[in-house]
Amino acid sequence: AASSVAGGTAEGSEADDSVSERLNLIKDLVKEMNKKDDEIKSLRIERVSYLSERLMLLENENQELDSFKSQNRDENRESKQLSEIGVLQSRVTCANVAMDGSKSTFYKAG
């Protein structure tokens, strides 16, 4: 009877050691998972920070482009107006030359 009790105790002790080893492995795995989780969170924070910074830069570039487009539209409008003025001045000059020509013809005839 004593040997069976002693044997039972030895087996129980081995089982306790095995359970203890498994618990330690699980604890180590949980620590490792928490460490990896923290690394992932840190990387996500860095990524969000980088993307936020990049977004601000892109928004600034977009505003500069909008400003440039607006300025370009104004310059195009001004250029078109100057071109139209040039055309009108040419017409006035032609009309003046025609009038001068008809006056001289009129005066010669008269």
Describe it for me?
- The chain is mainly α and 110 residues long.
- 98% of the residues lie in helices and 0% in strands.
- It contains one helix and no strands.
- The protein has one helix at residues 2-109.
- Mean pLDDT is 85; it is low at 1-8.
Question: In brief, what are we looking at here?
Answer:
By secondary structure, this protein is mainly α. It contains one helix and no strands. The radius of gyration is 47 Å and the shape is rod-shaped.
SSE arrangement, N to C? H
Query: How many beta-strand segments?
Result: 0
Largest sheet: none
Computed structural class: mainly alpha
User: Strand share of the residues?
Assistant: under 5%
Helical proportion?
over 70%
Q: Extract low-pLDDT stretches.
A: 1-8
Structural Rg: 47 Å
Q: Could you tell me how far the N terminus lies from the C terminus, measured between alpha carbons in angstroms?
A: 158 Å
Give the overall pLDDT as a whole number: 85
What's the overall geometry?
Answer: rod-shaped
DSSP helix count? 1
Question: Would you spell out the secondary-structure blueprint of this structure?
Answer:
Elements: H1 2-109
